[in-house]
Amino acid sequence: MSHPTLAFALTLSLFAVGASGCGESEDRAATDAELPGGDTADDGADGAGDADGAGDVDGASPEVHLGDLGPDAEPFGTCEQDPLATAEGLAEKAARYDAIARRLHLHPELGWAMSVTLATGVDEDSATHDDVAAWHTGENDGLWSGLYMASQAFRYATTGDEEALSNLELLLASETDRMRITGVPGVFTRQMIPPGVPGIACPEDDAAYTTDVEKDDNRWVRIDQGGCANVVDHATGQWTTTRHCGLDAYAGWCFLDNVSQDEYAGHMLALGAIWRLVDVPGVRDAAAALLEAVGVHLMEHDLAFVDWDGRVTEHGRLWATSFADTPGFLAAESLAFIRLAADASGREDLDRYYHDCLLQEAGPEPCLPYPLESGDPYTSWLSFMAVLAEPDGCKSNYNNLSMVMTWLFDLLLVEDDPAVRAPALAALDQEIFRAPNPRNLEAQHNTWFTFMWAAMHRLEPETASAADRATMETAVCGLRQFPASKAVQTLDPGSLWPHDCEGRLGGSQAGSPIPVAQRCVRTFLWWGSPYDRSACTADDRTILQPADYLLPYWMGRYYGYLPAEL
Questions:
Q1: Which of 324, 326, 381, 426 could form a disulfide with 317, with the two C-beta atoms 3.0–4.6 Å apart?
Q2: H helices within 103-228, ranges in order?
Q3: What was the pLDDT predicted at 438?
């Protein structure tokens, strides 16, 4: 199959040295985390082995359930002798993190999970949301909270725990607000702030609301008492009431526009998991409605996210030949989002759009109004990933690595057609997880990536190779080493691991993945570089939210990779 124009070959060489993608969410050490009070740092950027039936849903693939091992199957290794492991077991840490997330990180009047700064003199072990001095809100709220929401979907599917279900109901109500506040079905806001909640407030500086000419910066929008969007006109410097109205339910709120693909990584992973795994009609229906809205928006806008102001968002061009990223990255994203939406909604038009437009099953017929979209099926683009920077991966974009893993996971969560699964799995292995690059994803010792990779392959102990088993046990070691608290501690990985190369954003990188026990805590550990040598200083008032432990833990439990007693 031929692909259009030599320009793509040239572009791929540019992407391969780390120039691609939206860089604003790349998670960094706690010293550079999102700042409290509404500001953000400039960071450049299936069946459960121990389930009680909570995860069985109508329409799910019978192959999704992987936890029921045969009588002669030997389970995956459990990393029993790791000298860097915490004294606490995996289940004990999960119970602690689930408890603290509910009482501290999830405010009932906000409804999304955030890191916090505690009031002076308050102890982490007893603190509640009433003890928060500042909420660490930022432009990636939707991403980070979405990853926490996904963890609760897997938790409920594994255990049927009522607290997990209650969390999902609260999170989904907020998730619905996160879309409705923009006034555009299918388009989420990056960040939203209601009035009257201590520790979080809308920006006061008019510059934050001043419209952006190029649509390459995020801008705040204030909703007046009449339910209309208010902004500061860049030409006049005056507050202006726009014609974008009907937002009466959010009078007095503000929201941040120009949503990016990073946010959708969290949203779609969580909503897809809820749709497929949580057999509770009200919850499942809410997730399905949001998935449908995303799919319809993309179908009606030719695979672009069009914001409240009628302009395509900076990182909202999803068609494979848009040059917004590599063709494989964008094809995986488009396939995943439309397939999830078609599956959740049951809409015939979305199903046709997926099969006849993206997969070209009715025959070659260009269906998108872009000159380089020549009618090639999107599966044929999947081998054009180029997400690992050549030659050694040091300048790779970790945002893109994390995002593309969620795109492929979302797609393969609902897709059983071998004609789609085969190229998707080939791209996963050959371009990403086991790519011929010393910093491929398998080499990064990223527990979350490994469990997603195993789930996409429907890996089971009785069919796993020795190499697969070693990779899975290394993933368990990552959770063994994960700290039992996400209060910021003093660590200096650079004193233990020498400099090897300079990363995409200029930071010093080690030559090998730094063990989890020796890394600074992050908002979501697995999103950032495991080679980062940055140091951090203790701050017992800053407590980061625990989605990065809970998501891989509950995925591992759900898929049967982690015994309940571990």
A1: 324
A2: 141-159, 162-180
A3: 98
Report the C-alpha dihedral over residues 440, 435, 452, 288, rounded to 10 degrees: 120
In this structure, whether the domain defined by 7-202+253-558 belongs to CATH 1.50.10 is answered with yes
List all residues 6 or more positions away from 376 whose beta carbon is below 8 Å from its beta carbon.
Answer: 1, 3, 4, 360, 364
Q: Hey, how many other C-beta atoms are within 10 angstroms of the C-beta on 536?
A: 21
Other residues' Cβ atoms within 10 Å of the Cβ of residue 489: 15
**105-134: pLDDT as tens digits:** 999 999 999 999 999 999 999 999 999 999
- How far apart are the C-alpha atoms of 232 and 212, rounded to whole Å? 10
Domain boundaries, the chain: 7-202+253-558
Residues in the chain: 566
Distance from C-alpha of 360 to C-alpha of 379, rounded to nearest angstrom: 10
> In angstroms, what is the C-alpha Rg of the chain?
22
Q: How far apart are CA 45 and CA 139, in angstroms?
A: 11
The pair of structure tokens assigned to 53 is 């039936």
Neighbours of 38 (CB within 10 A): 23
- Mean pLDDT computed over every residue of the chain: 90
- Alpha carbon distance 536, 246 (integer Å): 46
- 3-state SS, residue 314: strand
Q: Are residues 46 and 65 in contact, defined by beta-carbon separation less than 8 angstroms?
A: yes
Q: For residue 67, what pLDDT band results from cuts at 50, 70 and 90?
A: very low
Amino acid at 443: A
Beta pairing partners, 160? none
HSE-CB at 380 with a 13 A cutoff on CA atoms is: 15
- Convert the pLDDT of each residue in 426-468 to its tens digit: 999 999 999 999 999 999 999 999 999 999 999 999 899 999 9
Q: How big, in percent rounded to 5, are the helix, strand and coil portions of the chain?
A: 45, 10, 50
* Cis upstream peptide for 203 (omega within 30°): no
CB-CB neighbours of 207 under 10 Å: 10
User: Which pair of tokens denotes residue 364?
Assistant: 């070659």
Compute the average pLDDT of residues 263-267.
99
Q: 394, 407, 505, 403: which is closest to 443 by C-alpha?
A: 394
CA pair distance 475, 490, nearest whole angstrom: 24
147-163 confidence digits (pLDDT tens): 999 999 999 999 999 99
